[in-house]
Amino acid sequence: MRAGSLAAVCLSEIPDEPLLGRNAAGVACLTRLPRLGELYKHHLERLAWADEMVAHHGLQRALTAADLESAHAAGHPSMIGGVEGLDFMEGKLERLEEAHQRGIRSAQLVHFTPNDIGDFQMGVVTHEGLTEFGAEVIRDCHRLGMIVDVAHATERTAKAAAKVSTRPLLLSHTALAGSKAMASSRLAARCVSPDHARAIAETGGAVGIWAIFADLDKYVEGLKEMADVIGVDHICVGTDQQVAPGALQDYAQWVNLIAAMLRGGFTSEEAGKISGGNYMRIFRAAVG
């Protein structure tokens, strides 16, 4: 992180990780359904791992916007606690507050496992969008001070979330459907349409472009594809960086990413927005 001049990263735990495998195309997929309490147990284990990283490996937690500003000013590596899929809740809203108390500040509603919140891309549609419980979860995220991340959600779920939300939404990792710059088409089902992206932008939020591009110049083209649809104020660098093929395998490459943005036609102000400023705006509005 220091080599890449990176002050903070979103470190997300994956409650349904024990259930995941790869299909014939090498894409992550669900291999079985969870046992009762299994995902909650794994969630708690990953929270304990994050505690270990803070206690013994020099990372600090960013729990407020002021923490992020301090980390940036001091150049000290910090992490924003995230969770990729709220499947661990098992219908128990109090587990969301518990996660917040343990340092989680970004809550992705769905992942690969069916839950009672909403439908997910690459899954069977069972709810026809966001459920009433899902709406309640969003309202509780607002109450607690957590970013609502609609990555992996179907377009219908994401648009319903946008109607419920009173804070900017984040769609943390995707690309524009039909991207000419993306290295692989095997994850086309995880990309989003222009209307899907606009629904997020209209909340004041942002769409993160993941790093599944052949090189940094192609990645910048992917950023520009989305910027042409929703504007520079509503895009950011996506999560899920250590992927193959991928243009950002190491945090040290971030300085090269900024150089590629400038080389690709973004101004220094625009590069600043994409590399952290837009996310900071969302974090401040959602978390405080």
UniProtKB/TrEMBL annotation:
UniProt xrefs under SUPFAM superfamilies: Metallo-dependent hydrolases
MF-aspect GO terms: metallodipeptidase activity
One GO process term, biological-process aspect: proteolysis
Origin: domain of life: Bacteria
Matching Gene3D superfamilies: Metal-dependent hydrolases
Matches recorded under InterPro entries: Metal_Hydrolase (IPR032466), Pept_M19 (IPR008257)
Name of the featured protein: Peptidase M19
Source species of the chain: Variovorax paradoxus
